[in-house]
Protein 1
Amino acid sequence: MIDGILIGLAVLCAAYFVVIVVYAGIGTSFAFIWLFFAALLLFLVYGKWYYARNLDRIPGWVPVSVVTTCVAGVAVLAMLCVLVFLGAATSAKSNLDYVIVLGARVKERTVNNSLRKRLDKAMEYAEDNPDTILVLSGGKGPGESTSEAEVMYQYLVYNGVRPEQLLIEDRSESTVENIAYSKVVIEQHRKKNQKVLVPLRQKTTSVPYAVAPDRPLEIGVLTSNFHIYRARMTAEKWGFDNVYGISADSDPVLFIHLCVRECASIVKDRLMGNM
């Protein structure tokens, strides 16, 4: 029974790898993980068979350690997937002060499908919230002739978004840099547009004017649905107190793969202290 389940899962993993390669190309990031999963499942089937025939030669702690490690790995992956799914299901908050729109790789100034979905969501949000400033975040990576932010700007302006509603951050090359450099852009914009309070000279009290406390800054992070959780946690790590996710659709065929890849990125960023 268990052997049949493991073999069936291995076949599904291998089949999904083929689907990914045929659908998105052999160079799809992290696609090899599905072959690794398939090989691991088949190894467990073989290990179970080998152990049953060599009970007197293999110490009991070996299968216990293997099973414990596998169960722990599945539990961690399941927990991370739940966090990713919850982030993907988030609903957008209206009238945010700024929305950071995370970029994605461009080729020959062409917007790919993933980035187009983000920008279409940004256009929808900008239309519904005309006072919100969009921060377009994305630098020029290897093989890119222009920055992602510049391509995003041209796409949005061409499709009717007002240029004065847009800010450009064109230095970042990762999610962490997206947030860090966007924070600098936001702070510079706020400083530039800060109102100067002039004392009321006719008053004779010890307090010539009253200063109302600033409303807490509310920031949105707009990215693909599978990426929301990590982007929000990164923004909070970099000092944004009120962060809200705005979820753009991702490719339904690649969604499971993208979520698994995102789990690995969450672990990496957590270990590196980025979130």
Note: The chain has a mean pLDDT of 90.
Protein 2
Amino acid sequence: MAKGRGRPRSFLARLAGNTLIGLLGNSIQRVLTFIVTMVLTRGLGEESFGVYSYVTAYIFLFGFAADLGIERVVTREVARRPSDAGVLLGSALTVKLVLSLLATAAAIATAFALGLEGTTLTCVIVAAIGLPMSIEHVFRGFFQSRYQAGYTFLTTMPATLWFLAAAVAVVVWRLPLYWLFALGLVSAPFMVVGLFWVARFRMHLTFQVRGTTMVHLLRDAAELGGFMALFLLSMRLDQILLFHLRGDADLALYAAGVRLGEALGIIPEAAVVTLFPLLASSEHRAPERFRETYRLGFKYLSATGVFMALALTVMRHDVVRILYGAEFAAAATPTALLGWNTCFAYLGVIHMSLFVAQSRQRALLGVSAIALSSAVALDLLLIPTWGASGAALAALLANVVGFACWVALRPTRPYMLTALAESWRAALAAAMVAAVVWALALSTTAAMVALLLLYPPLLWGLGGATWGDVHLVRRLFREEIPSNPPAA
């Protein structure tokens, strides 16, 4: 059991602390990244910022090829077999290094093949050199499996702050753009040393490499990486289609709603830091804890997602005006539709983590392909007539198709039926609040007050939140499961 300041720290306290740290760390990272964007947009000018945006997108593609889904695979395997952590981490780092070296060579070769030159080519080369040192994803998977997400942020946050300082220096002193990527490289070795120091000397982990483990990790990471590639493509392809079918004005309206939806993803992202390793470790060793973890996850994340969606619907005009200005008024409807899309995102955090924990990468790949195909077909059908609102509706309907696929598959059907059983109360509470707002024709402010005052008690009255859940969590998570329980 973990200890803190001389006395035992309960497993439940570790889980709560890990989730809180995940939320806080992700929030700070996003804020710092946004500040970097503000500094560069205001200081570089359109041409140089365009080069920067191109290089970061270009390197992201090759970086993704080097990462695949190795973070999730490491988290799952270490949570299942904590005694093999040294072999798993050492093998994963070797796989990551080999893939990164190949990605570096491919990125530079492709840059020459594309005829890139001048500052753009120099920036690509410098950024590509840093790929082999981007090993934080492997360590993040390990730290998540130990419910110690704080170590990830402790070792990577200085690099984020350094990059912000580098951006300010490049803008203030008007340095060539490649200096930004070069200065970013300076912090990489220190981050790598910090990660190894924490794992080796703080956690006493001995790194080992095993060929069979490497092959296993690479196979699972490749399958999971295919799913993640389709997922990322589904988040961007609709914007490309919207641009070509309706132009940049409609894309701007749609992107405004997309960015807001991504910002609201901080909550489920923080939850998955704890939920995923918990599901992976308890499926076979503690079946009751496993069942109650995903059931309660469905229950409370759906309640949160529905509240967010209803709030965005009620306040869509004011939210858009406050965040983006009066010229984005037409983004209100797409924003509201994408708000309801967040409900699927919140539920998706649970069932995607659940299926990865069960090694259902191929099913994830197949369902993602169907959902993406449906999204493209719906985009082509709805965008020409409805523009940004059509793209938002297409995204929502594509998620419905994906959810239906999971219900149709026999192995995953019980979990999705549980999701529906735990979500209907939140949906009914939201419908009742919406009915009151509509019947009384409430103003935006009054409608939001009604939502805040009515939704929680209605949810409680319908059984969407109970004290029994609190007692259940305390009982199930009071003590940690032994890593290697004795045979029955």
Note: Residues 361-408 form the longest helix (48 residues).
Protein 3
Amino acid sequence: MPPYAGPPVARSDDIAGTLRLLACIVLAIGLMVLDHQAQWLKTVRGYAELLVEPLWEVAGMPARLGRTVREDAATLGRLTDENDALRNALLVERARNARLQAAAAENARLRGLLGAAEQGGLDVQLAPILDIALDPNRQRLTLDIGSAAGVREGQAVIDAGGLIGQVTRVRHSSAEVLLLTDPSHAVPVAVSRNGIRLVVYGRGDHLELANIPMSADVKVGDLIVTSGLGERFPPGFPVGTVARLQPDASRTFLIAVLTPAAQLDRGRDVLLLRGRQATAAAAVPAPGTAGDTPPGAGPPAVPRTAPAEPAP
């Protein structure tokens, strides 16, 4: 155990440091009192804050940047979700609008069909179209009704524009319609303006009046209607309009190209004529057969026997 050395002796350096600390404390207290009373250091504080402000800005920049990124990400996600929802809603509305437009067009066609039937006082039967064949060598419609609904061979088929063709084959739940434009089809017609009787032949993509005498009063724009000869088709139904007149190869007769009155390539429904005239059996020979009409002699005689389905 060391010998007792007595109390520690204060050093002069410690005393001087303590005095300086006390002096600084007294000076600081005095400056705070004076500043509180007279606002002496207000200007100094203002300059100091001005000098320190950029440092505060730099120090707070990471936090602000992170907050901005989070807010932008949240906003982008919300806008993306809203955009997807609006896009889906737009697609749904477009689909509904297209469906409504299709329904409106179909209603307009049906009103036209029924209006034409009512105006003419016709006994008709509405028939939906199941299939259509518009090959140049085969012009057919398949209807979604047949013998079960009272459909019979030989019935005339019309739409709001005019004559479409005739029923040539009937099954239990479907029926086949031979269109006017089929190459094997011919229809006795007349010029509505003056009553000149002719025969319209199908040419695949159009209708044609052949063997028209040069002296015949047929003009571009004339309406051609069924004549009623042969009792296959009732008289007065529009068949087409003369679109072009031209001489044939021999330069002896005229050929008229017709624009069909019926909408052969569109529509979803047609009308079947019912009654005696709609089902009377008749046939019109195509050009080049024994029943062809001599030039200027009018339409051929129409036999009153039910024809077999025309060969393609």
Note: The mean pLDDT is 77.
